[in-house]
Amino acid sequence: xxxxxxxxxxxxxxxxxxxxxxxxxxxxxxxxxxxxxxxxxxxxxxxxxxxxxxxxxxxxxxxxxxxxxxxxxxxxxxxxxxxxxxxxxxxxxxxxxxxxxxxxxxxxxxxxxxxxxxxxxxxxxxxxxxxxxxxxxxxxxxxxxxxxxxxxxxxxxxxxxxxxxxxxxxxxxxxxxxxxxxxxxxxxxxxxxxxxxxxxxxxxxxxxxxxxxxxxxxxxxxxxxxxxxxxxxxxxxxxxxxxxxxxxxxxxxxxxxxxxxxxxxxxxxxxxxxxxxxxxxxxxxxxxxxxxxxxxxxxxxxxxxxxxxxxxxxxxxxxxxxxxxxxxxxxxxxxxxxxxxxxxxxxxxxxxxxxxxxxxxxxxxxxxxxxxxxxxxxxxxxxxxxxxxxxxxxxxxxxxxxxxxxxxxxxxxxxxxxxxxxxxxxxxxxxxxxxxxxxxxxxxxxxxxxxxxxxxxxxxxxxxxxxxxxxxxxxxxxxxxxxxxxxxxxxxxxxxxxxxxxxxxxxxxxxxxxxxxxxxxxxxxxxxxxxxxxxxxxxxxxxxxxxxxxxxxxxxxxx
Length: 559
What we know:
Layout: H1 20-24, E1 35-38, E2 42-45, H2 46-63, E3 70-74, H3 79-90, E4 94-97, H4 104-114, E5 116-122, H5 126-132, E6 141-145, H6 148-151, E7 164-167, H7 168-173, E8 189-195, E9 203-208, H8 209-225, E10 236-237, H9 251-257, E11 261-264, H10 270-279, E12 284-287, H11 289-296, E13 310-313, H12 320-328, E14 332-338, E15 345-348, H13 353-356, H14 360-367, E16 371-373, E17 378-382, E18 388-389, E19 397-402, H15 414-420, E20 426-434, E21 439-445, E22 450-452, E23 455-457, H16 459-467, E24 472-482, E25 486-495, H17 505-517, E26 529-532, H18 546-558
Parallel strand pairs: 1-11, 3-4, 3-5, 4-8, 5-6, 6-7, 10-11, 12-13, 13-14, 25-26
Antiparallel strand pairs: 1-2, 8-9, 14-15, 15-16, 16-21, 17-18, 17-19, 19-20, 20-21, 22-23, 24-25
Helix pairs in contact: 2-3, 12-14
């Protein structure tokens, strides 16, 4: 043990904890005149936001919420959700962001497992609660929210058979704007949510106040600081990643602290997203590739100026084809990498001066990587025996991580927590290589790598190749056992409408075979079977659902 000298503490000195209150305390200091916008229904400045968060804290306290209680939110992305991001944890309570896209049975499991006591719920989700309320074991009270109050204040809200504290806006209007948030231990639990990336029941991921403040400081250093994307507090921020998904990747905390103008779209509808993008002059968003693909293929996208829009992609791999389509529309697109368990940022594409001088086509090689390792994060490669591997840009191994904001484990699941942190490193389950310039390239998920003909072939690499075939909208590749080669890749593809009569599985194979013949790729990258499908299964957060895809392809291709 290294012997150090501890800084002497004066008994009366203030030792501020790193808690979300620290972020909230900044909201009226610098540019409080900037707006927070919800669809075409509501807008306010940061002075009003500050008052509303304190009003919500009073409402929750009067309803009986105490430090340590879990308060769940079921809402579309909105200004109300943002207020919950601050009011609930600043009380010392725990914010549970419910994944509204889960099945009712999964929502029931997560609410009981998290021990939710209070629920803020949009009236659109009342039928879910009505169906499961008899099986909820800890919930005591509900606050209902509705968009009707902005359109017609006299409109009747949906009726419920469960106990309501009242309607959100009415409750805020009738309570005090004064609330002094307390200090408490920075290691107190701040948030929890459930990830469905594994088999069995969803797993509860949790974060402390200190971890979320440190993650916010990382975003501050990496984006306005190192300018991984050219954004700062003058930007207009519109998340297109649900706020229930890893706290909207942490950017709402950063945007609020720095007084970005913020735009929340509610339910994700292409027309509304594009309308807000133009009307509110949005300059920064983040989303999964599915959403970007939907937007760049919208006829409206070709009619508007997107040259000031910076987009960070995560959740699934940004293919070269999609990146090129976005750049062709003027969108400054790049990729980041993270997991629910890492809050999520671990790496983000950062083009240095030399790379920025490259032609757009050359930049694609960097924009489609997982990015440079983020500040304060350690990423290493590990083999099956727990040995570290070199960062030479070629050697592949499982990516393991450490950092000051990564979850300590899974809620009430000691065995899975130990597996996650085996050997003192968080195991991502991703196969990757790391170059000497700190760029990370994800090869595949450990379970999705295809071993064929003695070669390791990445399903992501094949999907990336398919994305560059003209007329291919989306693809998914799965490896299946093969008696001769061990495994072989098989693909399903969504074809763009204008190419329905132009593309065939054989013509796509021919494009890949031409790359084999020219020496660009080896023969193992050409799928054995290609099937056209109307859509590809996605998870609740828009990622390719490889588990469902595997099951459906097995039936479709192998019989």
